[in-house]
Amino acid sequence: MRLSKYFLPVLKETPKEAEIVSHRLMLRAAMLKQEASGLYAWLPLGYRVLRKVQNIIEQEQDRAGAIELLMPTLQPADLWRESGRYDAYGKEMLRVTDRHERDMLYGPTNEEMITSIFRSNVKSYKDLPLNLYHIQWKFRDEIRPRFGTMRSREFLMKDAYSFDLDKEASVKSYHRMFVAYLRTYYRMGLTAIPMQAETGPIGGDLSHEFIVLADTGESGVFCDKALLDQPIPPKDVDFDGDLTSYVNDWTQMYAATEDMIDMDKFQADVPEERRIEARGIEVGQVFYFGTKYSEPMGATVADANGQDVPVHMGSYGIGLTRLVPAIIEASHDDDGIIWPVSVAPFELALINLKTGDESCVAQCDTLYKQLENAGIEVLYDDRDVGAGGKFATADLIGLPYQMIVGPRGLKNNEVEIKNRKTGERTNVSLEQAVDFLLERIVPERRQDV
Ligand code: ATP
Ligand code: MG
User: Fold this and answer.
1) Cα–Cα distance between 267 and 439 in angstroms, integer?
2) Per residue in 289-299, pLDDT tens?
3) Which among 142, 3, 114, 133 has a CA at the least distance from the CA of 60?
4) Residue 216 gets which letter from DSSP?
5) How far apart are CA 17 and CA 240, in angstroms?
6) Residue 208 CB less than 6 A away from ligand 1
7) Closest C-alpha among 108, 88, 121 to residue 154
8) Is the pLDDT of residue 202 over 70?
9) Is any atom of ligand 1 closer than 6 Å to the C-beta of 284?
10) What pTM did the predictor assign?
11) Whose CA is nearest to atom 21 of ligand 1?
């Protein structure tokens, strides 16, 4: 992409309304524009990141055996009357009436609708286990939307729903999602720690929240430092096999949010030097809630004896539009964002230091083609502005690598490559530049981990 033809209206000033660094940087880097309280337009640069986050989630959900579909944002109120949640949900639910005076709502979550899809199509235990998911916009009329898309009213969520014959099978489905989540966040360059969670208004008795440590997080958290170095289940993990040992590795060390903290246990289990008392961002949650919806809504299957029994269910959410700022909270410096390659809007900023210089332009154009042919995602800063402005923009929007091309380097047949994260600068010959980048970028995509 040539920056001269792109839409990247970066801001010089720091917007006053933004209280936390990720919100400030998302506005300054032209990723977002607020349209109303808790409602945001995703501008092109931000949308590219959101799509990458979505891709990783889909790949890992699919790998774990979940099947993607798409349900509507609007739902009939009658479905929610069946589960009893229409009245219980309160003011967070946006209620609307259609032209026929029918009560509708903008879905804050989809347990009821997925249960209705299940009950009209699945009748036998032989069709289980089943896990269906979608990635769809949700609306919750939050009392205090804040921090940009970290807590917005409309937000994009991945929500998966598992169906099993009994609790034992349902726990296996829970483990599959648990392992998929560990891999998902890791691939985005995040360390997300599963912490025992309250089951809240959705109900049930087994739940973990996945938390990214960050000073600006809304939850107080307590955990064992050793969790930060736990290995991630590998790409070839057998989702049809027993995943208990992976889950145990991640749950045997103490980790709980402030709602669930047992101080005595925390202090007894974790040696003082390993105790982390910090703040964190909830980027996902997994729930087992048994027959809470299947029973009232009549979602039953025939078991091996031909007896109709209500299915056991779980639900598994990930907040995509919260993950993007969470990644920024975890990875930035004074100059701007530092994207991990796997979610970066572009992998490389190609910076032409001298737009007036014919040979410099020609060389940049050639490099641009070579880089694109090599499959590297390039944002080519071909604008007619000074070098300082180009460096500032590249640092602000946080592309993981910069290739800086100027007349002085070209005299020696060289370009300079800067690593945005480490600040390391290397002079590389024109012939080797593309390979130099591929060697670094390809593994950092984390597609094969
Ligand atoms: P919170 O406690 O932060 O209000 P929640 O526990 O009510 O969230 P869930 O129902 O577990 O949310 O939804 C699944 C995921 O969706 C959350 O883990 C979070 O990442 C994301 N999410 C929930 N509410 C919002 C919101 N208002 N804005 C952005 N993302 C959200
Ligand atoms: Mg939650």
Assistant:
1) 45
2) 999 999 999 99
3) 133
4) T
5) 48
6) no
7) 108
8) no
9) yes
10) 0.97
11) 319
Residue 236 confidence (pLDDT) above 70? yes
How far, in Å, from the CA of 422 to the mean position of ligand 1? 33
Q: Which ligand is nearest to the CA of 38?
A: 1
Tell me the two tokens of residue 437. 């980048």
Cβ–ligand 1 distance for 152 under 6 Å, the answer yes
Does the Cβ of 155 fall within 6 Å of ligand 1? yes
Asked if residue 426 lies in contact with residue 37, where contact means CB atoms within 8 angstroms, the answer is no
Q: Is 322 in the pocket of ligand 1 (CB under 6 A)?
A: yes
**Phi and psi based region of residue 269 (left: phi greater than 0; alpha: psi -120 to 50; beta: remaining):** alpha
Q: Of how many residues is the chain composed?
A: 449
Q: Which stretches of 273-412 are DSSP H helices?
A: 294-297, 320-330, 358-373, 387-397, 407-411
Count CB-CB contacts under 10 A for residue 47. 15
C-alpha–C-alpha distance, residues 424 and 417, integer Å: 8
Amino acid at site 47: Y
Q: Burial code of 150-176, b = ≥16 C-beta within 10 A, e = fewer?
A: bbbbbbbbbbbbbbbbeeebbbbbbbb
What is the reported pLDDT for 197?
86
